[in-house]
Design a protein that fits this description.
alpha/beta
């Protein structure tokens, strides 16, 4: 989840910035104002429970660049970090969603990537990172722990790594949202995108069984078939239409996701994003943080190989890291544009930075 209050209260400033109404010499004022809106106790966007993965997905930087050791998060560390999760109460969420509808002009119940981000991600702790959650040997226990702590949970998986039995168990354990990444509707193409382990027909069969099981047991888990927009021609666009049509009358939230936040964007600069990210600058340094399986704290979900570590929860508290000199320097770089040469945020990310809107 993320800081919905920051998203809302900083929006007027964001509009001025994105509409090029603020001059470059206003750096210090912008930094100060954003710091007023920023909660001094951080929101945990996601916790990477494992970085083990047996897939070879073409859009994932893990496939080409990740060299860090494969591990599972330590049980004690997971318990400690979930104690730090700040849960949005129902009243706060309702107020946020009402504001989205009336002021931000985003239909919260819209079945789309933006609808998913604002109605689901806003309220859930994400339990995936650069590994496949179903390869986490303690997955069921982790979900049960979150359930006891009343933390809503969500993770995305590649169905090839999932058994129907384990999916049923995570739903029974209290998982709120289970997303399935499919990305193609035939065997040849899905293997090209996700690797030789991917299997389209088998994946769909598994999901249909899970839908049936959910109905039989009256479970509440939201099931989300998702296709990343890798469209390069009319055939791909037609495939996306068929994908949405296939899931249309089933008890699922099916949508097409833009390939945004791409660290490998230079490989295909023509890919377009339709998510809310495309209309603004990166807010992650103020909005939330990510905890990796080894305890490293990074600013967003796209740090695959410890390229931008801001601290480790085994050495400092989350609050100390969030309010540290390193974090303040990162926020300042996003405003001033004064990044060191080779910095990940500035040179290997397709999201705009705040400084790029200043005139």
């Amino acid at each position: 989840m993320y800081d919905i209050n920051f998203f809302k209260t900083s929006n007027n400033l964001k509009n001025k910035i994105t509409q090029n109404k603020i001059k470059k010499d206003s750096y210090e004022d912008i930094i100060a104002e954003l710091d007023v809106y920023r909660d001094k106790n951080p929101f945990i966007y996601n916790i990477e429970t494992t970085n083990y993965c047996n897939m070879k997905c073409v859009m994932c930087p893990r496939t080409q660049f990740m060299t860090r050791k494969n591990i599972w998060i330590d049980d004690i560390l997971f318990d400690k970090m979930t104690d730090k999760v700040k849960i949005h109460d129902e009243k706060s969420l309702e107020q946020f969603w009402s504001w989205l509808e009336t002021d931000y002009k985003q239909p919260v119940k819209e079945v789309s990537e933006n609808g998913f981000y604002f109605s689901v991600v806003s309220r859930c702790l994400v339990l995936h990172g650069f590994g496949e959650p179903f390869l986490d040997k303690k997955l069921i226990e982790r979900i049960e722990m979150c359930k006891k702590k009343k933390i809503p949970t969500y993770f995305s998986c590649t169905p090839a790594t999932m058994t129907v039995e384990k999916a049923e168990k995570v739903m029974e354990a209290g998982l709120d949202v289970l997303k399935f990444s499919l990305d193609a509707m035939d065997e040849r193409k899905i293997k090209k995108i996700r690797g030789k382990r991917a299997d389209f027909a088998e994946s769909v069969e598994k999901i249909l069984k899970i839908i049936k099981y959910k109905k039989e047991k009256n479970l509440k888990t939201l099931l989300v078939p998702c296709m990343i927009d890798l469209a390069t021609d009319e055939t791909d666009i037609e495939m996306q239409k068929r994908f949405l049509e296939f899931w249309k009358n089933k008890d699922v939230f099916a949508y097409i996701k833009s390939q945004d936040n791409r660290w490998l964007h230079e490989n295909d600069p023509n890919l377009k994003s339709t998510s809310h990210y495309s209309k603004q600058y990166c807010e992650y340094p103020w909005l939330s943080l990510t905890i990796m399986a080894d305890g490293n704290v990074v600013p967003c979900t796209q740090i695959s190989n410890n390229e931008l570590v801001l601290g480790n929860v085994k050495e400092n508290t989350l609050e100390e890291i969030w309010n540290s000199k390193k974090y303040k320097e990162l926020r300042k770089m996003h405003v001033t544009g004064k990044f060191p040469k080779g910095h990940k945020c500035n040179e290997k990310c397709d999201m705009k930075k705040l400084y790029q809107y200043l005139v």
